[in-house]
Amino acid sequence: MAHASPVVVIAILTPAPGREDEVQAALIAAVAATHEQDAGCELYAAHRVTRGRPGFVVVEKWVDAPALSAHGTGPAFTALAAALDGLLAEPLDATLLEPLPAGSAEQGQL
């Protein structure tokens, strides 16, 4: 990459049985905190899976890798990690994506 480009993250959270409401509450708090506290956040949106494996997905977009890195050590994510302790059936699965813009600028990338 010749220049800084946005970083998109898809984070998948699989709650332990019976812990779905607690995971949802932690995510809702984390979304608000991330929006307020984390510079470089262009998108941080939590979703409940409605079809497929039960769980939650967080779609994130950061202006660049340093902004994502700062989020990972910042207070919003630190609080989320603490709130999720013991609530997940498996470790959080975060996949980093590099946009491949195509088509229209509005529809071809997040």
UniProtKB/TrEMBL annotation:
Gene3D superfamilies, A to Z: 3.30.70.100
Name of the protein: Quinol monooxygenase YgiN
Pfam families named among the record's database cross-references: ABM
Classification via PROSITE patterns: ABM (PS51725)
Domain ABM intervals: 7-97
Domain of life: Bacteria
Gene Ontology molecular function, alphabetical: monooxygenase activity
Keywords: Monooxygenase, Oxidoreductase
